[in-house]
Design a protein that fits this description.
- The protein is α+β, with helices and mostly antiparallel strands and 550 residues long.
- The chain contains 19 helices and 14 strands.
- The chain has helices spanning 5-17, 31-35, 77-90, 99-109, 117-124, 129-156, 160-181, 192-199, 202-213, 221-237, 281-289, 296-304, 311-320, 378-407, 411-432, 453-466, 473-494, 506-526, 535-540, and strands at residues 26-30, 44-50, 61-65, 68-76, 112-115, 250-254, 258-263, 266-271, 275-279, 324-328, 332-333, 358-359, 362-363, 371-373.
- A hairpin with a 2-residue loop joins strand 3 and strand 4.
- The longest helix has 30 residues, at 378-407.
- It is elongated, with a radius of gyration of 33 Å.
- The protein starts with a helix and ends in a 10-residue tail after the last helix.
Length: 550
């Protein structure tokens, strides 16, 4: 220990003097200094233990005493006993054993009593040291298998740089498992060199550092494969079993709460009913090739058949974002994790900056290989898309009404109908940029300040059209021509150039219904607000008009 007993007692006295007067605590020293590691910059970690029935705070108090940082934690005997029992109860499933819980129990079991020795001994007796060694060794072994399996998969996917990193993680975890079985259970890897020295096994220590130093360059796939094989051999020598010697045991499986929705040619994947990922053409082709439950090698072959280059990297992106999962036959889901790092799980990328956000035929993406996260929660995304489609239907209807009014010389009707078309077009423009709920029609022109500069200029032109009057056939014809030009401009800006002429023929109306039905299915699945109540009948009729669906 780098501090003498007298020095520790002196630091403890001075630390307790800074705290409010409380019960007579039993006190034990935890952490790296108690383990015999540490240095002059290491914290002094005092744990105060009492028989309180209350739940004592988890957060430590940080003090500065005689030039040292001192952390004071408190725990009741009951809290510590519950933690130790929980570790024992979770030992059979090391993959579910919390790192934080294991770390807290390790610290108390390897602590150095300073006061109240009988009470500290009573707490420690709840989980014998030999049993804790085995539990910790199994926990590290489980993590080593996960990391090495993940490294194997990443190599298959063409991600050699990531594979190299996870091989390094598996190497550390393998030797930590071996060391834990010899009593070196301190979790944090930064003291690994000293732990290996204390085992007395110079052969294991030297081989570990040899492999650590031999980590290959990220772009050398063959060297990464050779290094992974060497690390697997070493792990096997250390006693680890069920290592990934046969990559064909890796399978690609469905993730819970991940669904696929295709609108036109665009593939959308929804994660957890909240996050919408829009796939570019190449990414969509690879996604459609997936047959979940097949081996990774078979899935890669199917993806290659799409003609998309580097399709494995797209599969790696799907895996990274939690859209699919990997499993090991007989070993469950592959779920790698690093110690004292961010919790494992899907990555959430920054939201897409593509604008407009969506069109009537799907979300806008940044390129053919894009796997873009939409900057809206899924229900608002679907609601905005449904509003976009409906606004285009209203535009078509208003133009038809305007044409009829002009033929009959109904100038006031024509003025109001033209305004209706302008407002509907503005609603579509706002919806295409993800604005939902929409402003009131009377505020639409002013709220174009929510949009990027290009669409904002379109809003200024809308203001001019809304002020146009009609007093003659010539006025009406000019207004209709300008309105058609304006609608074309808006649809170009919102990606709706190919919207059907809904009321031109039975075929174009059916095309409109099919387009609306695709978005309605998605909206209904997410519980999004429907644009009109009649849309429920279109859903019930599976895209057909209600009386034709009978």
């Amino acid at each position: 220990m780098i501090l003498t007993e007298d020095r520790l007692q002196d630091l403890l006295d001075k630390s307790l003097a800074e705290l409010p007067h409380g019960p007579d605590w039993a006190v034990t020293l935890e952490g790296s200094i108690a383990e015999g590691f540490g240095n002059p910059s290491s914290d002094i970690d005092f744990l105060l233990v009492g028989r309180s029935e209350a739940d004592l705070p988890t957060m430590p108090s940080l003090l500065f005493v005689d030039g040292r940082r001192v952390e004071i934690r408190t725990r009741s005997v009951r809290q510590l006993a519950e933690q130790l029992r929980a570790v024992e109860a979770g030992a059979a499933r090391p993959g579910r054993l919390s790192e934080d819980l294991l770390n807290r129990c390790q610290r108390i079991l390897h602590s150095h009593p300073l006061r109240g020795h009988p009470l500290i001994a009573e707490v420690k007796a709840a989980l014998p040291a030999e049993r804790f060694r085995r539990i910790t060794a199994d926990w590290w072994a489980h993590r080593a298998r996960q990391s090495l399996r993940h490294a194997t998969a990443l190599l298959c996917l063409g991600e050699s740089a990531e594979a190299a990193d996870w091989t390094r993680a598996g190497l550390v975890q393998s030797v930590k498992s071996w060391a834990a079985d010899l009593g070196e259970t301190y979790l944090e890897p930064k003291w690994l060199s000293m732990q290996l020295d204390r085992t007395g096994r110079t052969d294991v220590r030297d081989r570990y550092w040899e492999l650590e130093a031999a980590m290959p360059g990220a772009d050398d796939t063959a060297a990464v494969q050779d290094h992974l094989t060497a690390c697997l051999d070493f792990a096997e020598e250390l006693g680890l079993s069920r290592l990934p010697r046969k990559p064909e045991r890796l399978t690609v499986e469905r993730r819970a709460a991940v669904t696929t929705w295709q609108i036109g040619e665009r593939v959308h994947v929804i994660r957890g009913r909240r996050d919408v990922f829009a796939l570019g053409d190449d990414a969509g082709a690879v996604w459609r090739s997936l047959v979940l439950g097949r081996s990774l090698s078979r899935v890669l072959a199917d993806a290659a058949d799409t003609g998309v280059t580097d399709s494995g990297r797209l599969l790696a992106a799907f895996l990274r974002y939690g859209l699919v999962r990997l499993a090991w036959k007989g070993g469950g889901t592959v779920a790698p994790a690093l110690p004292l790092a961010a919790p494992p799980g899907p990555v959430t990328p920054p939201p897409s900056a593509a604008r407009p956000l969506l069109s009537v035929r799907g979300a806008t993406v940044g390129g053919p290989r894009a796997v873009d996260l939409m900057p809206l929660p899924a229900d608002r995304f679907a609601a905005a898309a449904m509003a976009l489609v409906w606004s285009n239907v209203v535009v078509e209807n208003a133009v038809e009404d305007l044409t009829g009014a002009l033929r009959r010389g109904q100038w006031r009707v024509a003025e109001l109908t033209a305004r209706r078309a302008v407002h509907a077009a503005l609603r579509g423009l706002a919806s295409a940029h993800g604005v939902h709920p929409l402003p009131a029609d009377s505020d639409l022109v002013r709220r174009t300040d929510l949009l990027p500069p290009g669409p904002r200029a379109i809003g200024a032109r809308a203001g001019e059209l809304l002020l146009r009057g009609v007093d003659s056939a010539d006025d009406g014809d000019a207004l209709l021509a300008e309105l058609r030009s304006y609608i074309s401009l808006v649809r170009g800006a919102q990606g709706s150039d190919s919207f059907p002429l809904s009321f031109d023929s039975a075929d174009s109306w059916r095309a409109t219904l099919r387009l609306g039905h695709d978005w309605l299915r998605l909206g209904a699945h997410l519980g999004a607000e429907l644009p009109i109540e009649e849309a429920r009948d279109l859903l019930a009729g599976n895209g057909a008009q209600p009386h034709q669906a009978l």
